[in-house]
Amino acid sequence: MKQIILILIIITCFSSCKSSKQDKSKRTTSSRIITKQLDVVNTKDEFKNIHSAETNILTRPENIINYAKQFEGVRYKWGGTTKSGMDCSGLIFESFRAYDILLPRISRDMAKRGKKIPLKAVNTGDLLFFKTGNRRNTINHVGLIIAIKNNNIQFIHATTSNGVITSWLNEDYWLKAFFEARHVL
């Protein structure tokens, strides 16, 4: 009886070894295929392709607007560019940067980019610039147009008192502070 058990164990060991060799050769072949695929497809490019496939459904301005809207309700933080705190130019900078459009980080420098346009010609995705009564009388605030309804312009921006919010240009404060609109896309 002991001899039969010993023989069965030996047979099992040899058959296991044979199986391991087959598995190992199969794994090697599989690894080669995977390696070849990884060599051919750069991970960054693969991510960009997935990112592009998602973004092709919407227009570029719509994607930028949707990106900016994810920060709604985020508190104001001077120099902030994250969900833990955001300032007005940080919101615009990050929203455009997410779609490979690099703008300057400061609102007065952003106002030097793109083409100045009259309010009648603005579209979603355009930028509104404001002078909010600072001592130097320079542009110090920026907002992104997200909708135009009944000749009124809705924009998203970050305020010191309420953080990232949407406002309407026809509100007294914003209409008085408005300086210019620019098309950067």
From TrEMBL:
<dbReference type="InterPro" id="IPR038765">
    <property type="entry name" value="Papain-like_cys_pep_sf"/>
</dbReference>
<dbReference type="InterPro" id="IPR000064">
    <property type="entry name" value="NLP_P60_dom"/>
</dbReference>
<keyword id="KW-0645">Protease</keyword>
<protein>
    <submittedName>
        <fullName>C40 family peptidase</fullName>
    </submittedName>
</protein>
<keyword id="KW-0378">Hydrolase</keyword>
<dbReference type="Pfam" id="PF00877">
    <property type="entry name" value="NLPC_P60"/>
</dbReference>
<feature type="domain" description="NlpC/P60">
    <location>
        <begin position="58"/>
        <end position="185"/>
    </location>
</feature>
<keyword id="KW-0788">Thiol protease</keyword>
<dbReference type="InterPro" id="IPR052062">
    <property type="entry name" value="Murein_DD/LD_carboxypeptidase"/>
</dbReference>
<comment type="similarity">
    <text>Belongs to the peptidase C40 family.</text>
</comment>
<keyword id="KW-0732">Signal</keyword>
